[in-house]
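Work Package 4 report. The design task specified in the project plan requires that, given a folded chain encoded as structure tokens, an amino acid be chosen for each position. We show below one input record used in the internal validation round.
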């Protein structure tokens, strides 16, 4: 384990391990409060971005000298990560929440060189931390952690952003050239933890599911979120109560016949090493997309919900970001005996009993979204996030909010790798915008991209 991960793990060793993801909002369905979907993903690691921890300088045409190297991130509720940047022209906002996602939900979704980036991660620092051996492969006398990190980041930028970053250190330059020349196309790594589907529904007295667990952990703990109606249990296909599952395991909500119409939620949690090469995207604001380079044992988690009723429409709704289709895919199913009807961007969608339908909501790049789907018996599910699927183009990046103060900046190579002042921008190539440009850009995001979609179930006759 690298020194940065050791420090991160030590800081987090005393942290209390809690079940589930931090969430806001609710599904109000005659039962416990349900967590909102938040960032559209079915599970994995949630982490907070720190600053550049191991870095050196590189020269980029048109940009001059910039800092390049490894970020450190703290996993919630426990663990430490190291990541490289795969989004050169976007500022990295320190202290912001990130979520592990597949390549299809990041700027790598249409990058034919994504597999080569993973090869670089597997064959350079910090995965290859024998620096003498790494220097030998590059044909140089020696490397340090800083020069190896800068060289690795420079090679990654070539394939993620088509940036010709050249390390200022001669040995680092040789390592960059070695990595670019020898990079091979590797497959995308699997998720550390995911659930499919993340939402199920059915009639009272049935087993609702299955929900299939995929994980690289030896086992994962399964539990009901507190507040579930009395008598509801988590079971396997044979009806046996389950408290843990292995990869490929299936879980059902067992709802007793006498239960009132309602809902419940389960949490799956595991301690594991997240696969190298998984992408990390910001969940609430536009911030630099990152890719995993090193990890301690980290806690990952996922949630799934179930709703049930004796009769009428019984909806289950989930959403996932689809970069290839340019929007958010909303999948609505109906396990009841009456139609489930709602409006989607002015279009009425009706799901007959026993059917399901997937509708894509078109979103602009960097657009913030926040919308709610409602249904019978107080059903309500909210989805929010930022549609971030492309690497930024050259030019000033929008700040999180308009500011009347100059953006903080630090010359490349300054200890710590983060900017001065308030310390909210970490430097890896992206230049800081002036206050006026940043304010205008942020305003445009609010006016043009911050659309709010509200999906409301149409009342049926007699209600």
């Amino acid at each position: 384990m690298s020194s940065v991960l050791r420090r991160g793990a030590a800081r987090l060793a005393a942290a209390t391990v809690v079940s589930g993801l931090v969430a806001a909002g609710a599904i109000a369905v005659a039962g416990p409060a349900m967590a909102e979907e938040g960032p559209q993903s079915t599970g994995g690691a949630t982490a907070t971005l720190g600053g550049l921890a191991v870095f050196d300088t590189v020269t980029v045409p048109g940009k001059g000298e910039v800092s390049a190297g490894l970020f450190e991130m703290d996993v919630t509720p426990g663990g430490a990560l190291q990541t490289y940047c795969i989004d050169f022209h976007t500022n990295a906002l320190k202290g912001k929440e990130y979520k592990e996602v597949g390549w299809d939900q990041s700027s790598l979704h249409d990058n034919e060189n994504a597999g080569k980036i993973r090869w670089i991660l597997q064959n350079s620092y910090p995965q290859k931390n024998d620096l003498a051996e790494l220097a030998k492969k590059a044909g140089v006398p020696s490397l340090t952690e800083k020069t190896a990190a800068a060289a690795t980041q420079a090679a990654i930028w070539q394939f993620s952003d088509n940036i010709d970053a050249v390390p200022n250190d001669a040995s680092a330059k040789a390592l960059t050239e070695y990595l670019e020349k020898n990079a091979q196309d590797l497959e995308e790594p699997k998720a550390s933890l995911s659930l499919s589907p993340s939402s199920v529904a059915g009639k009272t007295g049935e087993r609702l599911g299955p929900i299939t667990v995929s994980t690289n952990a030896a086992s994962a703990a399964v539990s009901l979120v507190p507040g579930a109606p009395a008598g509801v249990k988590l079971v396997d296909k044979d009806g046996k109560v389950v408290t843990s599952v292995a990869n490929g395991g299936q879980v059902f909500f067992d709802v007793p016949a006498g239960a009132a119409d309602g809902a419940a939620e389960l949490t799956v949690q595991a301690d594991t090493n997240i696969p190298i090469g998984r992408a990390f995207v910001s969940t609430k604001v536009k911030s630099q997309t990152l890719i995993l380079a090193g990890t301690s044992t980290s806690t990952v988690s996922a949630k799934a919900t179930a709703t049930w009723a004796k009769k009428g429409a019984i909806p289950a709704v989930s959403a996932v970001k689809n970069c290839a289709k340019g929007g958010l895919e909303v999948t609505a199913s109906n396990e009841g005996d009456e139609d489930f009807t709602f409006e989607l961007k002015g279009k009425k969608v009706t799901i007959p009993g026993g059917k399901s339908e997937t509708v894509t909501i078109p979103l602009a790049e960097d657009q913030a979204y926040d919308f709610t789907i409602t249904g019978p018996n107080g059903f309500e599910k909210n989805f929010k996030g930022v549609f971030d699927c492309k690497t930024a183009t050259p030019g000033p990046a929008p700040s999180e909010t308009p500011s009347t103060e100059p953006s903080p900046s630090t010359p490349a190579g300054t200890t710590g790798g983060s900017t001065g002042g308030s310390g909210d921008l970490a430097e890896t190539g992206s230049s800081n915008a002036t206050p006026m440009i940043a304010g205008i850009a942020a305003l445009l995001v609010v006016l043009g991209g911050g659309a709010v979609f509200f999906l409301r179930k149409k009342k049926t006759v007699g209600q």
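The CA atoms of residues 43 and 194 lie 5 Å apart. Validation will be extended to a larger panel in the next phase.
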